[in-house]
């Protein structure tokens, strides 16, 4: 029997890790080639990991909610016959290590054993944590961090208080080891029994001055978490209420929305647009377009084409903010906010939107929209956006105040198209007529986008819409 290592596949240039959300196969289950074995999730996209071979799943190397790096082996599949594919190193190579490797292994074992003995004593209060306890958190912890916390007897509340220095504030190996060192030193200054022998030696004076240097930087870790945590308002619940936990995607959306509002100074500009020409042109050409190109022609690709054109006129709307720096983006990558069947939101990105004609834009919009609804988006499909458009008119909203998709600086909401009475100016005079109109709602980051720029941009979009050529071809 050959053994095949199922690895976490590469999911785009900007994706380095994913979280296991569900195992679809259990040890002992038969797996067919190209059959999904587990479900994973990145920050915005959920997807499946299929097996490239047929066989039997013999081992799961990670558990649900574990964070796995791209390229790591997540499972072992036993394949009938054939050669070993991506198999682990042969036992023979492990049984005969070089002298350098053997010496290093002995030193590591000594270090681990010393660390266990050294840190076991301070951690004696309370009930020791269990492995299950670390799964009851919305915060991501790597298996290594969880194992260190379990071995050192760090409670869930302590782990939550540690400020991480990793991506998105995650606790790294160095963070938790620094906390362990802090816990190890802290009791020595608090317990008088420990300090008495030290005072009897000439080195007692410098020992008292050192804790000020060591403890101060380590104490910074718990403080930001405590200060950032808002006061929770108690919620009244009775027997008729139903309590439903947010799914992972909703938790992420909630987190990103709050962070965006806390990061950007949101300002809105609104403008009403006459889109009668666009309405009439689409009604005239949508059947012909679908017959010739095999794609449905909605209003979205038309509007996206116009927004991309306006961004070329106002490149300072196509920027990102990184601390005190402004990054001017060369590519115009339009995010297209889309609602999923479960009510969640996702923003696939149309890359180089300014280089697409209407046909290319329609194909891109339909492809991303269909794959979003089917849950077939790849992680890279939601990366690299420089500006976002959301169609709130789909749900009948006239206008809205959308939240900026960080680190972008603007987002445009398209309202519902309505038939309204309007004053029509002609050389023969003004008269009242029925027109198709909609509102554009432009949210922008006032830290870097002034009202003149934000207002001028949305006005340019409106001008392009109203000047739409009814005789154009597609």
From TrEMBL:
Q: Which residues form the Lipoyl-binding domain?
A: 3-78
The residue ranges flagged as biased composition, category Polar residues, are 119-128
Report the domain of life of the source organism. Answer: Bacteria
Which residue ranges are recorded for the region named Disordered?
A: 119-138, 190-234
Name the cofactor(s) required for activity, per the record: (R)-lipoate
Segments spanning the bilayer are none
Q: Which UniProt keywords apply?
A: Acyltransferase, Lipoyl, Transferase
Recorded E.C. number(s)? 2.3.1.-
Q: How does it assemble?
A: Forms a 24-polypeptide structural core with octahedral symmetry.
Q: Which family does it belong to?
A: Belongs to the 2-oxoacid dehydrogenase family.
Under what name is this protein listed? Dihydrolipoamide acetyltransferase component of pyruvate dehydrogenase complex
């Amino acid at each position: 029997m050959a053994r095949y290592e199922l690895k976490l596949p590469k999911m785009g240039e900007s994706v380095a890790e994913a979280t296991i959300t569900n195992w679809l196969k259990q040890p002992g289950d038969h797996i067919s080639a190209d059959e999904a074995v587990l479900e994973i999730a990145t920050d915005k996209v959920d997807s499946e990991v299929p097996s490239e071979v047929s066989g039997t799943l013999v081992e799961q190397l990670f558990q649900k909610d574990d964070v796995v790096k791209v390229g790591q082996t997540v499972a072992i599949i036993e394949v009938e016959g054939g050669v070993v594919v991506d198999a682990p190193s042969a036992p023979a190579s492990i049984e005969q290590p070089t002298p350098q490797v053997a010496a290093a292994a002995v030193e590591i074992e000594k270090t681990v054993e010393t660390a266990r003995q050294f840190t076991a004593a301070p951690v004696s209060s309370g009930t020791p944590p269990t492995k299950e306890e670390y799964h009851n958190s919305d915060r991501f912890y790597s298996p290594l961090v969880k194992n260190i916390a379990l071995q050192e007897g760090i409670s869930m509340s302590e782990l939550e208080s540690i400020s991480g220095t990793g991506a998105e504030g995650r606790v790294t190996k160095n963070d938790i080891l620094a906390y362990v060192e802090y816990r190890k030193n802290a009791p020595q200054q608090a317990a008088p029994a420990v300090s008495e022998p030290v005072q009897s030696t000439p080195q007692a004076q410098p020992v008292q001055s050192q804790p000020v240097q060591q403890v101060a930087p380590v104490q910074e870790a718990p403080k930001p978490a405590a200060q950032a945590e808002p006061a929770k308002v108690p919620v009244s619940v009775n027997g008729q209420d139903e309590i439903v936990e947010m799914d992972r995607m909703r938790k992420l959306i909630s987190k990103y929305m709050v962070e965006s509002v806390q990061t950007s100074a949101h300002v809105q500009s609104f403008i009403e647009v006459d889109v009668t020409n666009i309405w009439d042109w689409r009604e005239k050409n949508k059947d012909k377009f679908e017959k010739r190109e095999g794609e449905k022609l909605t209003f979205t690709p038309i509007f996206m084409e116009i927004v991309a054109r306006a961004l070329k006129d106002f490149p300072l709307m196509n920027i990102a903010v990184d601390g005190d720096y402004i990054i001017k983006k060369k590519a115009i990558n339009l995010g297209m906010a889309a609602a999923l069947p479960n009510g969640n939101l996702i923003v696939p990105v149309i890359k180089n939107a300014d280089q697409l004609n209407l046909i290319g834009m329609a194909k891109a919009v339909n492809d991303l929209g269909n794959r979003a609804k089917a849950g077939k988006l790849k992680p890279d499909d939601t990366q690299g956006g420089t500006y976002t458009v959301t169609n709130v008119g789909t749900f009948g909203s006239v206008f809205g105040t959308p939240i900026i998709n960080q680190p972008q600086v603007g987002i445009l909401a398209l309202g519902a198209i309505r038939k309204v009475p309007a004053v029509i100016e002609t050389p023969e005079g003004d008269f009242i007529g029925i027109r198709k109109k909609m509102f554009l709602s432009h949210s922008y980051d006032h830290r870097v986008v002034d009202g003149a720029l934000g207002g001028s941009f949305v006005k340019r979009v409106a001008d392009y819409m109203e000047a739409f050529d009814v005789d154009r071809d597609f």
